[in-house]
Structures are given as C-alpha cells and as structure tokens.
Specification:
The chain is mainly alpha-helical. Among the domains are: 56-115, no CATH class; 124-184, no CATH class. 69% of the residues lie in helices and 0% in strands. The chain is built from 7 helices and no strands. Helix 5 (124-138) crosses helix 6 and helix 5 crosses helix 7. The longest helix is centred in the N-terminal third of the chain and has 38 residues, at 15-52. It is elongated. The N and C termini lie far apart (85 Å).
C-alpha cells in the first residue's frame, strides 16, 4: 500500500505490522469471493431461466431492442462498415459491381443472387416410395380404399419393398408386396 501511495500507516508503524495488516485484508477479501461468486452465478442462472421462458416473439423483441441500443451507442458502426466493404469486394470479384454503381444497384444485385432458390432434385428412391404409398392407399390393404389405417406399418412395408427392388432382390408378386413392387418398378 505504501508503494501505491496510500497513507494508512501512522507514523511509527513498522513495515512488519503493515505487511500483516495487508495480508489480513487479503484473507478477508478472499473470504468474500466465494459468496459473491455464488451470488453472481445465481443471478446469471435466474437471468438465463427468465430469458429461456420468453416466447419466440419475446426473444426476437429482446434481440431487436439489444441491437437498437448497441446501434445507438455506436457499437455496430465498425462491423457495418466492414460488412459493406466485404460485400462490395465480393460483388466486384463476381463481376457484378462496377465502381459507378449506386448503393441501391448493389443491393439489388445482392438480393437477385440471394433470391434464387433452386428446387432440390427428388431421388428415384423417394419417387418410388411415394408411388408405393399411393398404391397402398388405392388398394384394400392396410385399410379400406382411400385410407391407410396404420401409416407406420404401411410405410415400413413400402420402404422395405422399394429397398429390395432397388437392390435387385426377388420380391413377391402377390398381395400387398406385389402391389407395391409393381408401383415401385416404374421409378427404379
């Protein structure tokens, strides 16, 4: 304490007494750390539970308010500028950004690239399973025509039969298995 300029020792106090008092102060501070840590942990736990109990709309609202406050404090200025630079560089490398473009033209080009969604190609196997389920639904097996009484069992049978046909194994031509196999073979 003498090193940092605190005058706690009265004139005539020995260095040894000063060291003892500092050690005692340190032990007292260390005795306070665990309860404070527990209190902090409990507070964080309570805050986490409160935030966890929020509805999705509440979480979005809280996130929005947090972002708004961060923007008002100027914490988002640097990341926004960095994102603009990265975007401009990416557009330039893609050949879509020309220096004379306005920011609106840049945004339009970005949205045009991001808005294109190509449908995922459906596999032959999936098409065959769909056809098999339709065949089961149209038949009297697994319930009356037009309905499936136990969809889980029906799907298992269709999946099993489609897999066997796909692997080139022998499949019965009679009953529900035959119906499914005939429907599946059109796609595999």
């Amino acid at each position: 304490m003498g090193v940092i300029g605190l005058d706690v020792a009265r004139p005539g106090t020995s260095r040894q007494a000063l060291v003892k008092s500092v050690k005692a102060l340190g032990r007292g501070a260390m005795a306070l750390v665990p309860p404070l840590a527990r209190g902090t942990g409990r507070t964080a736990l309570g805050l986490g539970r409160t935030l966890g109990s929020l509805t999705p709309a509440g979480r979005v609202g809280l996130a929005g308010l947090t972002l708004y406050e961060a923007q008002q404090m100027g914490l988002l200025d640097e990341p926004i500028e960095r994102a603009k630079d990265v975007t401009a560089r990416a557009l330039f490398e893609a050949g879509e950004y020309l220096p004379q473009q306005t920011p609106q033209q840049m945004l339009d080009a970005l949205q045009r690239d991001q808005g294109v969604k190509r449908p995922k190609k459906v596999s032959k196997y999936s098409k065959s399973v769909k056809a098999g389920m339709a065949a089961v639904k149209a038949s009297q097996y697994f319930g009356k025509k037009g309905t499936i009484s136990n969809p889980k069992k029906a799907f298992a049978a269709v999946n099993r039969t489609a897999s066997r046909v796909n692997q080139g194994k022998k499949v019965s031509n009679k009953g529900v298995t035959g119906k499914i196999a005939r429907a599946v073979r059109r796609f595999i």
